[in-house]
Design a protein that fits this description.
The structure holds 2 protein chains of 2 kinds. Chain A has a two-stranded antiparallel ribbon with strand order 2-3. The radius of gyration of chain A is 33 Å and the shape is elongated. Chain A has 2 domains: 15-189, Substrate Binding Domain Of Dnak, Chain:A, Domain 2; 201-398, no CATH class. By secondary structure, chain A is mostly helical. Chain A has 13 helices and 3 strands. The longest helix of chain A is centred in the N-terminal third of the chain and has 59 residues, at 63-121. By secondary structure, chain B is mostly helical. Chain B has one domain. In chain B, 53% of the residues lie in helices and 11% in strands. In chain B, strands 2-1-3 form a 3-stranded antiparallel beta sheet. The longest helix of chain B has 21 residues, at 55-75. The chains are: A mainly alpha, B mainly alpha. Chains A and B meet through helix 1, strand 1, helix 2, helix 3 and helix 4 of A and helix 1, helix 2, helix 3 and strand 2 of B.
């Protein structure tokens, strides 16, 4: 059939999907704009209570400027996308109708041609009334084919015009200071965002400073991690828990790397790790930073809310211990329970990291190694030496 | 000038919000995932360029927001100047 007339193609795309994307972009942009507003107000109008707050205020710097640009990218994209979705919906329907009409007319033409061939085979010629009728009907189908092709062409042209208009608007929005390649000039021209905003290589330095050398474990990561966790937690005591709590705070960079290594994978109910997204190593590093920051904020919030008699459990972010027994016994129980949980957790962590491939394992290895280094430093304390009691949890104690 | 005192817990809530935003920026995802809905024309690549073409700034911004969020753990409280309209949403008490 395609040798006789062209095959009309439907138009791919989904208008509700485009509208959903527009809604998501608008919501994202609004969220960015809200954060921008909050930070601008805090930067310009807040007086902080103490040096920590003042440092926070100073770090806000030009972050709101970047947030504002990002918000514009998202919010301003919604309207042209919705307009495009409207055109897509209408013209897609026109095209689809044309495709169906075209196919039906073609089928009818071929059926008529088969009948004509049968009549010719039976001895009729083209001047016979039956064949003249069939040829007239075929001409009607050809007219319908041409009409469908014209409608298809016109709708496609209208859609192409709307597509081009929307794309031009979006490309205009994308041509800003945030665009990759120009971002270095834009941000450095504004003295950088916060502290140390620069290349992503700089991010690596921030989460793994030179003072804490990163040893990439590679294929030996499983053995290294198991060793660290089993040695560090397998026979956990109240004192070990306190040591580990302090070490894990010191090893925050390592935690960031280790957390980031797991991003993009999920454990199925049967325990198998399945990669969900192919996050780059850089994205995993930043994700690790956000997860570490989240844990730090969560710990600080629990410190604010916890009372002055809180236990070591609360020190590491868990709820204050309740129930009977001495404080020492309860703490030891908590340590053993935490040790078991961490050993189970690291096995899951390794499975998740393995799901992301070799680079994920290397990243995970760096994180574990950093953590191991900081914990090893604490464990050089002689076993029979009594450690001072953990300080009461306070906001600053969360460091 | 009237000011409002905002406690550390509220500041930490702000920090949690910043961390959430940083997380969302980091996991903004692959824009090509939505490409199928946009049809075969120029809009698809333009959306990819718009959403994916600021990857470096996005990750840097996410890292900065994560740092800011984490810094709220040390920030303590703050005083808000009502002339700047700061007290709304932060629940500060008048001082």
């Amino acid at each position: 059939m395609s040798g006789v007339w062209p095959v009309l193609e439907p138009v791919p795309g989904d208008a509700p999907g485009v509208r959903a994307l527009a809604d998501a972009l608008e919501a994202s942009g609004q969220r960015l704009a809200d954060a921008c507003t909050d930070l601008v107000r805090l930067r310009d109008g807040a007086v902080w209570d103490g040096p920590g707050g003042s440092a926070f205020g100073a770090r806000i710097g030009p972050v709101p400027t970047v947030l504002d640009r990002a918000a514009r990218r998202h919010v301003c994209a919604a309207a042209p996308l919705r307009a495009f979705a409207d055109v897509l919906e209408v013209e897609q329907a026109v095209v689809q109708r044309a495709v169906e009409d075209h196919a039906e007319a073609g089928d009818r033409y071929l059926v008529l041609e088969d009948r004509a061939a049968a009549l010719v085979a039976a001895g009729r010629d083209e001047t016979s009334s039956e064949l003249l009728t069939l040829r007239a009907l075929q001409r009607e189908q050809v007219a319908q084919l041409q009409d469908a092709e014209q409608r298809h062409r016109a709708a496609t042209e209208r859609l192409h015009a709307a597509d081009g208009h929307c794309a031009r608007v979006l490309r205009g929005l994308a041509d800003d200071e945030l665009a990759d390649g120009a971002v270095y000039r834009g941000l450095r021209g504004a003295s950088g965002v916060g502290h140390g905003v620069g290349s992503l290589a700089g991010l690596m330095v921030r989460v793994a400073p030179p003072a804490k050398p990163v040893a990439v474990a590679g294929d030996a990561v499983g053995l290294a991690a198991d060793g660290v966790l089993l040695v560090g937690y397998g026979e956990g005591s109240g004192r070990d828990l306190a040591v580990t709590a302090g070490a894990s705070v010191l090893g925050v960079g390592g935690d960031a790397l280790r957390t980031g290594a797991k991003a993009g994978a999920v454990l199925r109910a049967d325990g198998a790790a399945v990669p969900l997204a192919r996050l780059s190593a850089q994205e995993r590093i930043v994700l690790g930073m956000t997860q570490t920051a989240r844990e730090r904020v969560r710990a600080a919030r629990s410190m604010v809310d916890v009372d002055e008699r809180a236990t070591a459990s609360a020190l590491v972010g868990g709820p204050a211990l309740r129930g009977s027994g001495t404080l020492r016994a309860r703490t030891a129980d908590a340590a053993r329970r935490l040790a078991r949980e961490r050993v189970d957790a690291v096995r899951s962590e390794l499975a998740l990291a393995s799901a992301g491939g070799r680079s994920t394992q290397r990243l995970y290895g760096a994180g574990v190694t950093l953590t191991a280094a900081s914990r090893s430093a604490d464990r050089v304390v002689p076993a029979d030496e009594e450690r001072p009691a953990a300080p009461p949890p306070t906001l600053r104690g969360a460091r | 000038m009237t000011s409002y005192r905002v406690d550390a817990a509220t500041v930490l809530t702000l920090g949690a919000g910043l961390v959430d935003l940083a997380d969302a920026l980091t996991l903004a995802g692959d824009p090509s995932a939505d490409r199928w809905a946009l049809g075969p024309g120029e809009v698809g690549p333009a959306v990819e360029d718009l959403l994916g073409g600021w990857r470096h700034a996005r990750l840097v911004l996410a890292a900065s927001l994560a740092e800011l969020g984490e810094a709220t753990a040390d920030a303590g409280g703050l005083y808000l100047d009502t002339e700047a309209g700061l007290s709304h949403g932060l629940g500060g008490g008048r001082t």
